[in-house]
Amino acid sequence: MKTAKKTIRVFLKTVGIIALGLSAAMLLVAAITLIGASILNLIGVTSAPFNIGAASVTGFAQLLFAIFIGGALVALAAICRKGIRWLIRWV
Questions:
Q1: How far, rounded to the nearest angstrom, does the alpha carbon of residue 78 sit from its chain's CA centroid?
Q2: Fewest CB within a 10 Å sphere: which of 26, 43, 67, 71?
């Protein structure tokens, strides 16, 4: 019975670490992409505004908005990293 519980724990730990790692990576890629797209819009390579409901954000405000949202995404990635650390100590 103890072996089965330990096996289940190790399996859940491994799946959790993989899931949190992939989540953190995707959040970081999304933050980089968002900020990169707003910089390209700012220098005039593209002209796609951020649409938030009925509002359309362009220009320098778009860059500030992207930095704010990117910071939130990086913070979520840091929470995923803390979750990975907790799972590593769990067994």
A1: 9
A2: 43
> What are 63's two structure tokens?
């860059």
Q: How far apart are CA 78 and CA 91, in angstroms?
A: 22
Q: How far apart are CA 38 and CA 61, in angstroms?
A: 9
pLDDT digits (tens, 9 = 90+) for 40-67: 888 878 777 777 777 777 778 888 888 8
User: How far, in Å, CA of 74 to CA of 31, rounded?
Assistant: 7
Least confident range from 4-13, 33-42, 55-64: namely: 55-64
Residues in CB range of 51: below 8 A, 6 or more apart: 57
Rounded to the nearest 10 degrees, how much is the dihedral formed by the CA atoms of 25, 30, 35, 40? 120
